[in-house]
Amino acid sequence: MSQLAYVIITPYSLYKSRTGGILTRLITRTGLDLVGLRMFAPSTELVKEYAETILSANDSQDRKIQELLKQYVLQNLSPDPKTGLRRRVMVLLFKGDDAVRKVRSVVGNLSPDRRGGETIRDTYSDLIMDENGSVRYFEPAVLAAPNAEEAEKKLKLWAKYSDADGGILENVISYGSTDKSERTLVLIKPDNFKFPTGRPGNVIDFFSRTGLFIVGAKVLRMSTAQAMEFYGPVREFLRAKLKDGVSAKAKDILEKEFSFKISETDQKALGEILGPIQGDSQFDNIVRFMSGHAPGDIPKAEWTNPGTEKCIALVYEGVGAVNKIRDVLGPTDPSKAPPGSIRREFGSTIMVNAAHASDSAENAQREFGIVKPGENNFKQVVEQAYGKI
After folding, report:
1. Inter-residue contact 36 to 10 (CB < 8 Å)
2. Residue 31: domain span
3. What CA–CA distance (Å, rounded) separates 385 from 20?
């Protein structure tokens, strides 16, 4: 039976850049479909309501662990009492058969006597006791529902607050008085989602080297219209750039086929005719790769429908965000990317190159307007599963 399951990545796990590793385990070990992703800065009201739902007779965890989780949520998800800043959490939604049990088995339970590293909590959580049995330090790393009934109750709660407390977060990072922060967009492209793989999480791990902060996240199925607008500036570049290459190739083919010589002037004329055609063809390939359909593949009335290909849209914030992200990403052509860059590690062609990143703060704003990373499709997914909130 298909279910909806959630995982909440805690503020500490986000701060320690463990997001990629957590996502990798969830995707590869559950085989479930990642259908939703949203950043939250929980209000006091949301934290209190969520904390009250943690104590459950249906949870296999010991009651003392449940009490510990409740206190953790109240203390660590609430706004910082010293600065007043709200804390960041990331909520992931997974869909598929027996999703809640599969997610919980990968998340694992909490115990001071863990012996292996099989689960997320085995690796990333801490429950340290003193000699008297009192808790010295506790960090659960992630939060997840124990069963389908609890998942529904808690997801409805987070969905209720998803407009007010979620989206592209504002004023959640503290900066020095002279620091000038900026935001940039990253798209983890469809080539990372062809089958359940750790690549999306691995790409996020690479970006974590920048020391920047994720303040927005969304699962994106780019429409044909969005892809056309997003990559619109590339179209004229392709039409002009490809003239010389296509004209030289056409000259060679025609001279071989018809046994006559083509002058330099005629070759240039061929480029003027064929370059834009080749450029448009390449542009259509990009749109098809990102959305699943080129404009000519479907009726115009369907251009605005969500596409068939999945991306993750992330908004990174911090000082020098644009340049830091692009340095880790590497140049468009993976063959020219330096070792250790994302495109060198995960890219294969100029188009199938793992990820996109804005090339300026101004372009980031343009791209935000197209893909709308703050859009609340999290609530939409929850309501599709359980009805109107």
Report:
1. no
2. 1-167+374-389
3. 26
pLDDT tens for the chain, 389 residues long, are 899 999 999 999 999 999 999 999 999 999 999 999 999 999 999 999 999 999 888 777 788 889 999 999 999 999 999 999 999 999 999 999 999 999 999 999 888 776 667 899 999 999 888 888 888 999 999 999 999 999 999 999 999 999 999 999 999 999 998 999 999 999 999 999 999 999 999 999 999 999 999 999 999 999 999 999 999 998 888 888 877 888 788 788 887 888 888 888 888 887 788 878 888 999 999 999 999 999 999 999 999 999 999 999 999 999 999 999 999 999 999 999 999 999 999 999 999 999 999 999 999 999 999 999 999 999 999 999 999 98
DSSP letter for each residue of 121-172: HHHH-EEEE-TTS-EEEEE-SEEE-SSHHHHHHHHHHHHHTHHHHBSS--S-
- The answer as to whether 279 is a domain residue is yes
Closest C-alpha among 3, 372, 4 to residue 159: 4
DSSP 8-class letter at 338:
P
**293 part of a folded domain:** yes
363 CB contacts (<8 Å, ≥6 apart)? none
This model's pTM is above 0.85:
yes
Q: Comparing C-alpha atoms, which of 310, 13, 312 is closest to residue 144?
A: 13
DSSP conformational letter for 178: T
Q: Is there a domain that residue 362 lies in?
A: no
Tell me: do 163 and 252 sit in the same domain.
no
Q: CA 117, CA 296: separation in Å to the nearest integer?
A: 50
